[in-house]
Design goal:
By secondary structure, this protein is α+β, with helices and mostly antiparallel strands. 35% of the residues lie in helices and 16% in strands. The protein has a 6-stranded mixed sheet with strand order 8-5-1-2-3-12. It has a 5-stranded mixed sheet with strand order 4-10-9-6-7. α9 packs across α12. The termini are far apart.
């Protein structure tokens, strides 16, 4: 039994021997500086942790039950002990706070790099490589706008060249993480986040989604290939040679949830695809968020847009396979803020004068006076009741 007891840890040690501490063996300058920050913070905390753990063992041994300890009932205070107890942690907290504050600002993911590596500054003519990233269900889409190609679950980057990632998500929040290159950054629908990083050592590194996002979350992994400039150009040429067009229609097919997608590339990409993905208007006929915000900035939809509400709807529950009510409420879409009778009168001009029927100013926007004519008649209770009784009640 004793031999068996000592043999229990052997399989555990054997399994852990295959693990690689990627965070502590980075391949890029940003990850290297993050590792230094992590080690410095850990070292500062160990200044307190190690003495405390040692004192726990010491007091347990000194005041054990079979030893008579000195009894001092009158003892109440020690200035020296109080000074050590409060001064040491306070100094460590000050140092740790200053180190974290400086390191956090220097390693801000939105901040362009100030160097390529410890020994290499950024050349004056250096241009970062822009990579647009979309977190789909459940796969990663990488778009290279400068090269005009795209890839699914595969990323190629030139070594010793700054990379600017622009990230968004198609449906739910996710997290983009290449441990050997840079820190983690979230990708969220309707928003754009940024991450700057660099690979200094060529090789193939693991990228993953570090935030749970549904059934296929565990399969959202990809290989990040750090190659030289010639190797990157060869990868781009190979992607173009394989063909395939990433159009808006193809993107909508990619949005449909799927798991464990094999890496593949596209030879061409719709140049407006990423901006439309950010603005949630890839589908034909959808109003983009940027347009909606511009309308709101000018005072709202106004009467002209009061029947265009459905174009603002962004609901991916059905596309993700969820047709059941959300939080107990049956899903619905608002197609109008007016009754059917109001809409009929808005779209039917009964003025007798032709010049008034063709006048586009008959509809006025926010905070402008309501004109006479059809809108004046709409305010009449008799006409309003008659128009409503002539059409069925609206259904939500």
């Amino acid at each position: 039994m004793k031999v068996f007891r000592y043999a229990i840890p052997v399989p555990v040690i054997a399994a852990l021997s295959g693990c690689e501490a990627v965070v502590l063996s980075p391949a890029g300058d940003i990850a290297e500086r993050q590792k230094d920050l992590l080690l410095a913070a850990t070292g500062l905390m160990l200044i307190i942790i190690i003495p405390v753990m040692a004192l726990v063992v010491f007091f347990a041994w000194k005041y054990r039950a079979d030893r008579k300890a000195t009894y001092q009932p009158e003892w109440a205070h020690s200035t020296k002990i109080e000074l050590v107890i409060w001064a040491a942690p306070l100094m460590i907290i000050i140092c740790l706070g200053a180190l974290t504050w400086v390191g956090t600002h220097l390693l801000d993911p939105y901040r362009p790099l100030d160097r390529i590596s410890k020994t290499a500054e950024i050349p004056p003519d250096h241009q970062p490589l822009e990579v647009q990233v979309v977190a789909l269900d459940w796969k990663w889409l990488f778009i290279y706008p400068e090269q005009g190609v795209a890839a699914i679950n595969e990323l190629a980057i030139p070594a010793n060249r700054e990379v600017e990632f622009r990230l968004t998500s198609s449906s739910v929040m996710n997290a983009f993480y290449i441990p050997a290159m840079a820190g983690m950054i979230y990708a969220m629908p309707g928003m754009e986040t940024k991450l700057h990083g660099v690979f200094n050592n060529p090789g193939s590194y693991q990228g993953l989604a570090s935030h749970y996002s549904g059934w296929g979350f565990s399969g959202m992994r990809f290989k990040a290939h750090a190659v030289d400039e010639a190797g990157f150009q060869d990868w781009v040429a190979d992607a173009r040679a394989k063909g395939g067009d990433l159009t808006r229609e193809e993107y909508l097919k990619l949005e449909v949830p799927s798991q464990n997608e094999s890496p593949r590339t596209y030879a061409s990409v719709d140049p407006e695809l990423f901006n439309r993905a950010v603005n949630l208007c890839v589908e034909p006929g959808k109003m983009c968020m940027a347009e909606m915000m511009a309308i709101d900035d000018k005072g709202g939809l106004g009467l002209e847009g009061s029947i265009n509400i459905q174009s603002l709807t962004h609901d991916k529950h059905a596309r993700r396979g969820n047709t059941e009510p959300v939080l107990g409420v049956t899903p619905f879409a608002v197609s109008s803020i007016c009754t059917p009778g109001d809409i009929a009168l808005m779209l039917t001009d009964t003025d007798e004068k032709p010049e008034r029927r063709s006048n586009p100013e008959r509809m006025h926007g926010h905070a402008l006076p309501v004109p006479t004519g059809v809108f004046g008649r709409m305010s009449s209770p008799a006409i309003r009741d008659a128009s409503r009784s002539a059409l069925p009640e609206p259904k939500l």
